[in-house]
Design a protein that fits this description.
Length: 466
């Protein structure tokens, strides 16, 4: 046999051996397809807010729509499995938080009920709040007079990465606190019950308190400071354990997560949420972190400060920002409830990955609810009723009345990610542009809160007379 033929045969043998060994057991996946058992990289916690007569030009609204004949999908992969992706360089994932789709460090914490903490947002001196960078879901609610309040959930891993100046782990210290904490509101009860949790608040008006269950009150240390009420992380965990009820295996199921952005959607680099001229919020998409950063003006309409966490100084980075359209029923502008339970379908906007998707939310009874008689969290669906995925990570939810308009405005001034605070050079012109001009395709989305869209309902007054 000639030398060339021998060399050829040797090369052929080596190639066949390499194919047999190197590709044996490979696990090739298609983009967007969940792979059970594959690791997922957890989100880093320390990544680099007009009420009046100004006109508005909103063409699209969050009106209710008649449910389609197609029921919500029963065969969609939900919760943690949907967040798992192939990643050859990441470490094996631990148990996943069903409300973030990300691993938790301590699986035992998943057995504790979710804690809902009423966190103030006014006056600006109360900011930055403490602990929000560890909250899986934060709800923002209108409380009247152009102001808002947060209901922050704590479930899974509690704040733990908050070293003090001397390096002490604040989780083991009395200095690690969440807040500032303010009074309870009627909508808290529906949110608490949907997530099988408990409430922590700085008391509440007696008519409101009579409608809230499973709550604990925290009082401030300074009678002259309404925002002095804080709760130590260790105390919150103590309350969770004292209120611990065994969570059903599927009690927090139904929320789907996908790392890859869904098809469709519209560009959304910025999202302005306007309560009034001196309470404006802008969410700015940061492609580097793949999340939205929150800026809110300092009650002057021009100085926008990037939201951060008092515990660790980290920016608040939200993978998902949701506008949830729901029926608001009121006795007065500051005393109202929100219909959130047993909703078949209602509109929502989802901002993720620099895009906005027009979707729906639901709390309809499905097999779990019918079998157990219990409730599950708010879920998100598409036009056909199939589950619509959030991005693994944290979610911020703005609650607004049905019929609230939203639109795209010209990008009059672009918020800079390189500075905090960011100061508008022409705040009057900026606000006028946002409220009175439209430019489809600009990626600069706007919505404005209208207290006039809250419906008067005598039954709410009756609730408060308890």
């Amino acid at each position: 046999m000639k030398r060339g033929q021998i060399l050829f045969l040797l090369i052929l043998v080596v190639a066949l051996i390499s194919m047999a060994c190197g590709f044996s057991g490979s696990n090739s996946t298609q983009p967007g397809v969940p792979v059970s058992g594959e690791p997922v990289v957890p989100k880093k916690q320390d990544a680099a807010v007009i009420q009046g007569s100004m006109p508005v030009l909103g063409k699209e609204t969050g009106k209710t729509s008649t449910p389609t004949a197609t029921p919500a999908s029963q065969g969609v992969t939900h919760s943690s499995e949907s967040a798992v992706r192939s990643s050859p360089t990441s470490q094996p994932a631990g148990p996943l938080n069903p409300l973030t789709g990300l691993p938790v460090a301590n699986q035992e914490m998943l057995s504790l009920p979710p804690a809902f903490v009423s966190v103030t947002n006014w006056p600006p001196a109360a900011r930055p709040q403490a602990g929000l960078s560890f909250s899986p879901i934060i709800f923002e609610l209108y409380i009247g007079e152009g102001m808002s309040r947060f209901l922050a959930m704590f479930y899974g891993d509690y704040p733990s990465e908050a070293p003090s100046m001397d390096g002490e782990d604040l989780l083991q210290s009395d200095h690690a606190e969440i807040g500032p904490i303010r009074s309870g509101r009627l909508p808290y009860e529906s949110l608490r019950s949907l997530y099988n949790g408990f409430l922590v608040m700085a008391s509440a008006y007696k008519g409101v308190a009579a409608n809230l269950s499973q709550h604990s009150s925290v009082f401030g240390s300074d009678g002259d400071d309404v925002n002095s009420a804080m709760i130590p992380v260790t105390k919150l965990e103590d309350i969770a354990r004292a209120n611990q009820k065994k969570l059903e295996p599927a009690a927090l199921s139904g929320v789907q997560f996908e790392t890859q952005a869904p098809e469709g959607g519209s560009a959304a680099d910025q999202f302005w949420f306007i309560y009034n001229a001196v309470d404006q919020i802008v969410w700015k998409y940061d492609a580097g972190s793949g999340s939205y950063l929150r800026y809110q003006d300092e009650a002057d309409g021009k100085t926008f400060v990037r939201a951060s966490d008092r515990l660790n100084g980290a920016d608040l980075t939200m993978e998902n920002v949701v506008v949830l359209f729901a029926n608001h029923r009121a006795c007065t502008e500051v005393a109202f409830d929100i219909d959130l339970k047993y909703i078949d379908r209602s509109p929502a906007l989802l901002f993720r990955d620099g895009k906005v998707y027009k979707i729906y939310w639901t709390t309809r009874n499905q097999e779990y609810e019918k079998t157990t008689g219990k409730l599950r969290p708010i879920r998100f669906i598409d036009e056909e009723g199939s589950a619509f995925p959030l991005k693994p990570g944290q979610t911020w939810i703005h609650l607004v009345p049905l019929g609230t308009p939203y639109w795209e405005a010209p990008d009059f001034e672009t918020v800079s990610l390189n500075s905090s605070p960011w100061v508008s050079q022409n705040p009057q012109g900026l606000l006028y542009n946002l409220l009175n001009k439209e430019e489809p395709g600009s990626g600069n989305w706007v919505t404005r809160y209208y207290a006039s869209l809250i419906n008067y309902d005598e039954t709410v007054c009756e609730q408060l007379r308890k």
